[in-house]
Fold this sequence. Notes:
By secondary structure, the chain is an alpha/beta fold. Helices cover about 60% and strands about 10% of the residues. It has two domains: about 15-430, Up-down Bundle (Amino acid/polyamine transporter I), CATH 1.20.1740; about 450-730, Rossmann fold, CATH 3.40.50.12370.
Amino acid sequence: MNIKNIKKASSAKLGTFGGVFTPSLLTILGVIMYLRFGWVVGNVGLIGTLLIVTLSTTITFLTSLSISAIATNAPVKGGGAYFLISRSLGAEIGGAVGIPLYLAQAFSVSLYVIGFSESVVAIFPALDMRWVGIVTTLVLGGLALFSTTATIKSQFFIMGLIALSLVSLVLGSPLEDSNVELWGVPAAQSVDFWQVFAIFFPAVTGIMAGVNMSGDLKNPSKSIPKGTFMAIGVGYLIYMILPVILASRADASTLIDNPLIMQEIAIWGGAIVLGIWGATLSSATGSLLGAPRVLQALANDKILPKWAGVFSKVGGKEKIPRAATLFTIAITLFTVYFGNLNLIAPVLTMFFLTTYAVLNITAATERFLGSASFRPKFKVHWVFSLLGALGCAGVMILINALATLMAFLVIGIIFVWLERRKIEATWGGLGRGVFSSIIRYALFRLEKEANAKSWRPNILVLSGSPGKRWRLIELADDITNGNALFTVTTIVSESNVPQEKVKDFEGRIMDYLANKNVQALVRVVRAPDPFSGAMHMVNSYGLGQLVPNTILLGDTRENRSLVPYSEMIRHFYKSRKNVIIVQDEGNIGFKEKKVIDIWWGGLKRNGSLMIILAYLLKNSREWQQAAVNVKMVVPNKEAYAGAKDNLDKIFEGMRTGFDYQILTAEGRNFWDIMTEESKNSDMIMMGLAVPEQEGAFEDYYVRLKDRTKSLPTKVFVLAAQEVEFDKVLI
Length: 730
């Protein structure tokens, strides 16, 4: 597009007065003002009405501050509030709020059309209100499909009609001799304050009319704040004057019973009728312009299912989203035919308050986190945004706690649905910043040394290629069971893998784990050999106090690797890292995961850690049906009685539910006993000797493997961390 065409396109767009102020004010001064404001004054009185107006306007004003902050931070495109939320909180939350927001906008059209139809039938009783509403919807829909600019221009004429009606009302005279009711009719006849609030609140939600036209504005970041504040100010002034006029010119009961009370009070009743018709039709048209654009934005971002992609299409010079507009017209026709003004208004209130709350939370969070990317021209302290969010939530609960719960339940269901679809958004979100702040807060409050009672495994898995040693990852996943961290580590050769390929390797492993439904951190490290790489990893990996405390690895089967392998184990122990070695001679894995045998030498160190690991495994879905058998060998029957008394007390205090068995050797070799007792087990746990002296551990480890080679999968456990593991159990 050349410069001339750019200027032409820009000039075709809307300014502050026509694009934001006019549609916002016309939506504020709409059907509720003409047909329900007298009812509001009659039920809660002058003071109650002024409170409702002030509270409603305060919430919308605080929300407008948040909207202005977000809108002046970055370029704003089509979609209004949905666009602002999704670009800050992410596609899932944006969609979860955007879909109800679209429905709220669509139902708003019904609200205004029903209001218009109600006023027409009051003057022409022979007409059927439903058919008036249907014909009106079709006419307005045709206008919205034809031209956005023509629709906006027609609103200037309508604003003149509203001004004429308000002047006519001010110049009118009292309908009857009456006293100003400060608190409405007696409590037995009146409606609850918060029910009245729910009916009135949609009157001030006009701030969305301008925001939803964001894609059609010349300068959204300038027009949205300026036009919205102007509309709120003018609307608040009018709504604070009207109750005084109404309360002083008719009794509360009259105000309640007569929806067209303004027509009777005004000096020229026809002006009120013209005002009602103009306001309701313009508000309906404004919502009929805004709602399809929210739907279009949802479709553009692929928030909706594939079949809804048609809603993203536009037509004509003004790029009107015609499919989205037709769909909105269809919803309006349905709700107009079956709807009721007093039933629709509270539903809209919940939808709008939910959207307002999320907008306020978005602005508050951005400001509180101090994100480098959040640099709005219109600066608002996060406290004001937080107050706006709390005000929305509080009012929702006071109006209807059950409806509030249902509103958030709907949003929650949509959020889960969107998250499962794994939408790939091309924009960032607040999520990473929020989590970073939480992590920072937690890291600085972690104890230097873990208390025994709060101990959890933080496992570093030396997996090599994940596909070849999957059982290591599987075991770590079962031990942590979503309640602790574990990291899958692969050491790659420096000579074969350049540094720039490391991130690609990590990405592939992450995808592989995700496909297996395993949540783990991933780290790929280059090193001359796997042993030095693993030692370097243990020395350097972690963040603050959040470092791995347990190393899980496989066995070495090559004699030439025995010395560096043993040196690596020794390094882990000296680094105070617990070691878990999975040794599986026949690659049979953990078979049915039904029986775990723990060969036990006592509660201290290795013995306690093995019990803890087995207990954690039992809490996982894969091992929950397993029987854990703790086996202990004593030399003879004389030692049996003392051992049994001791174990009875220990296991009663541990509360693990594990069975234990005391075996008497009576001259038999320990390894023969183990082979006989555990030959059919799915996992065998036993402690590992401390690898202190150089050379000695290599010989010990070779003998250990030789003596247990006929047994199924073994898990050797070495407790090295400076934690009294026995205190975790008792």
